Amino acid sequence: MTASAQTVGDWGPHAASLAGRTLTAMLGSGRMPHALLIAGPSGVGKRDLAIRTAQAMLCESVEQRSDGPCRECRNCRRLHDPAQPSLDPQHVDIEVVRPGQLCENREHDNRHARETIIPICAIRRLERIVTLTPFEAKQRVIIIDPADVFHPAASDAFLKTLEEPPDSVHFILITAQQELLPETIRSRCRALTLAPLPPKQLDAWIDRWSETEQVSLPDDPERRAELGRLARGRPGWLQVNLREGDPVTLRAAQIDDAVRIAESDRAERLNWSEQLVGRAATPQSVANVELILEAWTDWWRDLWLQQTDQADGLIHISQRERIQRIAALYDQPELSQFLEMIQRTRALVRRGVNARLALDVLLLNIPAPRESP
Ligand SMILES: [Zn+2]
Ligand SMILES: [Zn+2]
What we know:
The chain is an alpha/beta fold. The protein is built from 16 helices and five strands. It has a five-stranded parallel beta sheet with strand order 2-3-4-1-5, with helices on one face. α6 (152-163) links the parallel β3 and β4 (169-175). The longest helix is centred in the C-terminal third of the chain and has 25 residues, at 283-307. The protein binds zinc ion (ZN) (2 copies).
């Protein structure tokens, strides 16, 4: 190994954080807890770290694996295939439990496919699986993603499994809302909390990652910087969104819509809302509304920052001129009131109120821009 070579293992974007160092210590000492809880905000990279942890436990390069998995051996590849990054682990001893999964009862199929909780029958299945000896590996890893959506009966049953796990079984629970987990479950897990990465660390990681995964980044330095600001320290967000295209271009299109809608009349606004949500909201259309509201928060906050002489904090730096021009068309109290209203709408949509109605009310309250001079 030359001086410039990286270590063999790779804990990913959180390698240098407490979580990465803790995992290194656990694997190094051969004391991996039976239940890990990976917590942190949405998009921070929890699922990625859960997969890497499972990889490290099964990695064939045994000597180095306390530094993280090699990501190249056969077992590592079966858990994460760079060519199909969104694919679930393809290893018989790794199980991912999530809402919407089918159980062993065929008659439940229709019910489960649209479910947003983990039902009791999923835990019954798990109870059976954990009693089986692992097929190929020495250990069986069960990832629960997310662990905060158990049906109450499922939660009780899962607790029993967690209380007396067979030696070969390791659970990795993932959550963005730790407070929703029952204390009885939380107290049985070793918690690793992931925080957003500082900008320099995120930048360094994204350069390395885009090279190994052959994902292209914007060439233009301003757009590259905007990408970092959009990510807000969340490598998981970047992984998902860069694979789907260029987040800066997508955001620009969302802002074009926001500007157009602010200038449009009532009928056009309601029409747009119907196109977005449809007559009855589906989980997919609600997710779309949440994305739009995230973009709107960023956009209206940029206008407000510009108004209040805080342009250093702008997110959409590639649109600086447009922000200057449009911010001048509003008064500051109008901007801050509307920003608050977007936040309230986001909270309502997250809590499951009628997304169409919430969006309609918001759209009808967009402050009117003054006529450009
Ligand atoms: Zn490996
Ligand atoms: Zn079922």
